[in-house]
Specification:
Length: 368
């Protein structure tokens, strides 16, 4: 059993993926070929954003967004401590300080109610993460940001395709960033990512930053990076868009079935009624995670832990976040464990997973 089954996905779309890649090989424009603009237009239309800028990775998207907003040494950026390290890593690389705000226990997303207390004179941006495929409480976050005249960057690396009150993740804030890493809900066959915004000036800045700050050939108006997404990876995503809506429906269907059955036996990550999740991971909680993980392994069910340590407890970030008080993030880091989740998961395999997880649980397994 695969934790994420990319082979079945490729088999279902083999002809269109191969044809899209062959077009790139035929025209030979491997960097900024026609697929780049085509994908940007398609993704902008999908999200409702005015601008989409494809970039080399989700990590690069975060870096370029922060650079476009002028984040610099001495600034602070409020973000979640319960996320992949790239979220805070890009803040630190620019010389700024990540200010970690604790998360909600039921969603694992940043607690909007705690953000305002963390704002200081040095705060330059708020960077919520749409973890596990579900957007954070963006209305409340945006309202706080507007009150303090701060931009918001949604880290939507795991949530492309999800909605919040009917609006698409990635188009919920000043800038949205996503990732097309292969295991993401919409993935390429390497690294790739995208930025979304309604702001013309920010879009111009981000387009220039991704090509070494270049306004036109050999005219560099700002400091930039080599952050382009290549044509072949754009071609792969274009091919996968043909089936993406169906895949999201399957993810939600599978997630709902997990919720209905497993929530009787253990705590799960909850999806709020005003939003959807694309279930980049399907995550439960176990008080004795090593034992639960071992029992599932014995029963032939693969698992993964996203994430085993909150960022303010990571060695590289501990000194930067010595004052961080995030007990919920620390608790979740000890308990979360993800089960197989992908659109090609069969009913038989899901029932086998559910049966194994139910059998593996015991009184020490965390319950809602």
């Amino acid at each position: 059993m695969d934790f994420i089954d990319l082979k079945s996905q490729y088999a279902a779309m083999r002809d269109i993926i191969n044809a899209r890649i062959q077009l790139v090989l035929d025209h030979g424009q491997y960097i900024l070929g026609p697929e780049v603009r085509e994908l940007e237009d398609r993704l902008a239309a999908y999200t409702g954003a005015k601008h989409c800028i494809t970039v080399a990775s989700g990590t690069e998207a975060l870096l370029i967004a922060l650079m476009a907003l002028g984040v610099k040494p001495g600034d602070e950026v409020i973000t979640s401590p319960f996320t992949f390290v790239a979220t805070a890593e890009m803040v630190v690389l620019l010389g700024a300080t990540p200010v970690f705000v604790d998360v909600e226990e039921d969603t694992a997303n940043i607690s909007a109610a705690r953000i305002e207390a963390a704002i200081s004179a040095r705060t330059r941006a708020i960077l919520p993460v749409s973890l596990y495929g579900q957007p954070a409480d963006m209305d409340q976050i945006n309202a706080i940001a507007a009150k303090h005249r701060l931009p918001v960057i949604e880290d939507a690396a795991q949530s492309f395709g999800a909605t919040y009150k009917g609006a698409k993740s990635g188009n919920l804030s000043t800038i949205g960033c996503t990732s097309f890493f292969p295991s993401k809900p919409l993935g390429c066959y390497g690294d790739g990512g995208a930025l979304f915004t309604q702001d013309d000036a920010l879009a111009k800045a981000m387009r220039e930053i991704r090509i070494h700050g270049q306004e036109r050939r050999y005219v560099h108006t700002r400091i930039g990076v080599g952050g382009r997404m290549d044509s072949i990876q754009c071609a792969v995503v274009l091919a996968k868009l043909k089936r993406f809506d169906w895949e999201i429906e399957r993810r939600i269907e599978i997630g709902n079935h997990y919720n209905a059955t497993l929530s009787r036996h253990m705590a799960t990550i909850r999806v709020r009624p005003d939003r959807t999740s694309v279930y980049a991971q399907y995550t439960v909680r176990a008080l004795d995670r090593p034992a639960f993980e071992a029992r599932l392994k014995d029963l032939g069910v693969p698992t993964a832990v996203h994430y085993p340590a909150a960022l303010h407890k990571q060695p590289a970030y501990a000194a930067l976040a010595a004052d961080a008080i995030c007990p919920t993030a620390e608790q979740l880091a000890r308990e979360v464990i993800s089960l197989p989740m992908h659109p090609y998961l069969t009913q038989a395999d899901q029932d086998r997973i559910i049966d194994a997880a139910t059998r593996a649980s015991d009184p020490r397994v965390a319950r809602a």
